[in-house]
TrEMBL record:
It comes from Ornithinibacillus hominis. This is Uncharacterized protein. It comes from the Bacteria.
Amino acid sequence: MDSEIEEILNMVPAPGWIQYEQLYDSYKYRYDFDVVYENQNNVELKPFFNFRDPKTLYNMTSKIAEHQLRNSLDNLTDSIDMSAYTKEEYFNYWTTKFKKGLSDRYIYLSNIIRYP
């Protein structure tokens, strides 16, 4: 039914928004991990259990993680600057894009389907 399709379409952007918020915080504070990595052997600082592995810390530093985080953010936002978007605008953007993709796909498939 159309109402069910509409309801499902409105759910599509939710996981992307959650991932965007999580990745954006990591991207925003990426340089903080540089400080943690540089001070990992400082005896005055108590290490957090998850960050005892130097490889983990190194992979979280800005020179390693920045590019990966930026690519992930670009994928989640379609390379749009999200600073001007609200959650609702993000949802509207992706819902509209998904509807257009479904419409284009329907038109394509209807042209290649053989009618009896």
